Amino acid sequence: MRHLVRPAQYAALACYIVFLGFPLLWLLSASVKSSVELNSLTVSLLPSEWSWDNYTRALARQGLLRSMWNSAVVALSTTALVILTALPASYVLARIKGAVRVAGVGWILISQVFPVILVILPLFLVLRTLGLTDSLLGLVLVHTTYTLPFALWMLQGYVSAVPVALEEAAEVDGAGRPAVLRLIVLPLLAPGVAATAMFAFVSSWNEFFFALVLLQSPENYTLPITLKMFIGGEGKVALGPLAAGSVLAAIPSIVFFSLMQRKLASGLMAGAVKG
Amino acid sequence: MSSSRRREAAALVIPSLLPILVLSVAPLAVGVSLAFTDARLVRAPDFEPVGLDNFVRLLDNALFWGSFRIGLVWAVSVTVLQLAAAMGLALLLDSGLRFQGLTRVLALVPWAMPPVVVAIMWQMIYSPNAGPLNAALGALGLPDDTNWLGDFSTALPAVIAVGVWVGMPHTTVTLLAGLQQIPGELHEAASMDGAGAWRRFTGVTLPGLRPIITSITSLNFIWNFNSFSLVYVLTEGGPGGRTMLPMLFTYLEAFNNRNVGHAAAMGVVLVVVVVLLLTVYLWSQLRDDGERVG
């Protein structure tokens, strides 16, 4: 009986690997198959011949390149805004105990429970009054606001790890407050800022719902919206370019998660990141 | 705290407090209050308070409650299956097998994918003609012509499977972190007392993971109940409304039927029910804990 345990465990592990990995392999394989092969009824994981045709065809589509550019602009601006606003506030959140902290943490929790649909209705009306619907600037503001709570949470964890004694020692040596923050605290936060920036970038790059509601004209679409429109339209026949576009859309997030793999696995961020 | 320190704190907090207040807290408050008005999504919004009218009308909106039921089936099944599947994988990853690195990376990838890409990928898997799932079933001599996402009876289970795929990584990582905190001596002591694998699991592992299981199932339930993008792209609520999650239903009411007030009332009802369900769940968990101690 006992000698059957290991093989059974490996069999179970194999099932998990297939369940988790096969869909990804299938998407990759569809993106390098020829359109003839995709439209035939023979089903095989390995393409009969490799072709990068789908990628050139996907990139040749005006809409796709343009929305990729839009996504990059929105995600980079969101990242910059999130870091600029969250960094100072996270310092306060970590260093000051009491009401501010309770309110901050409380809001992070509440923002998890409320469905975005309740927020999007008035938000849409407000942004329309400001002329910021169907605008990338409006989307950046919304993405920034909704990435902030978690970014604050991540960053304040890193700030808490910087010993207060270090700051006090520098102040005793005569450094002013701005100098302490800039020369002592900031450099120690660099890894935390990098991790938070990647998180903000990926959240914004992947985001679908706000972009769906706020953007109306195709020249403003972000990549997820263009891909969604593509499915409904010619994607049914142009399966290959759709797969290629999807692979391209997944690259930033996969890079992020492979870089963050160890941190995520150590459970540091467990309990809060949700794609 | 000195007053200069207080000024410094305020100056540091305001840049992030401002957007959260203006674009998150205030809209939420307005969103809740819209539920008591007859607001419509039109060029010149002009709305009157209508008291509880929206909620009264909701009571006999059979479509809404139908979608509500689908939402509960979806959220409960995805949450429970996620927990079971993630527990299995976390235990395997914790038991010193080979291929740990590969499995860990694979277990994380679904987490990172944009929901739209996940939906496109699974549409390909489920494709009735050229999909690998039907091909595999055909090779085993089983029926190979199921239209997984298009058939009334299979659409919801098919969508639930994708929900499990997406949410598993996060739950696995959380449980694994918990498993690694359980002291090995506890397992050794239980083995010495002659406990088998199953007894050790129910006697040592589960009680040790209990707080983590409670918090991760609560969070998963909220996230699943509130989820929108994945199913919106996969099926748009079809076929025949069989996968019409409450958030999709509310979205269509607001942006297709333009009944903002009515949609806001739906949103409020959904929040209230989720909070009630969670309160009952957390209360029962706490009571069990209390009984164990006492």
Automatic annotation (TrEMBL), chain A:
CDD domains: TM_PBP2
Keyword Transmembrane appears in the UniProt entry: yes
Membrane topology annotation: Multi-pass membrane protein
Annotated InterPro entries: BP-dep_ABC_trans_perm, MetI-like, MetI-like_sf
Transmembrane domains' residue ranges: 12-32, 72-93, 105-126, 146-167, 179-202, 237-259
Ranges where the ABC transmembrane type-1 domain occurs: 68-260
Gene3D superfamilies the record matches: MetI-like (1.10.3720.10)
UniProt keyword NAD, yes or no: no
Protein known as: Carbohydrate ABC transporter permease
Automatic annotation (TrEMBL), chain B:
Entry-linked PROSITE patterns: ABC_TM1 (PS50928)
Alphabetized InterPro entries for the sequence: ABC_transporter_permease, MetI-like, MetI-like_sf
Membrane association type: Multi-pass membrane protein
Assigned keywords, A-Z: Cell membrane, Membrane, Transmembrane, Transmembrane helix, Transport
Entry-linked Gene3D superfamilies: MetI-like
Compartments where found: Cell membrane
Source taxon at top rank: Bacteria
Membrane spanning residue stretches: 72-93, 105-126, 146-166, 263-284
Pfam families for the chain: BPD_transp_1
Limits of the ABC transmembrane type-1 domain: 68-281
Coiled-coil residues: none
Family that this chain belongs to: Belongs to the binding-protein-dependent transport system permease family.
Database matches in PANTHER family: ABC TRANSPORTER PERMEASE PROTEIN, LACTOSE TRANSPORT SYSTEM PERMEASE PROTEIN LACF
Protein name: Sugar ABC transporter permease
Organism: Nocardiopsis coralli
Native organism taxonomy: Bacteria, Bacillati, Actinomycetota, Actinomycetes, Streptosporangiales
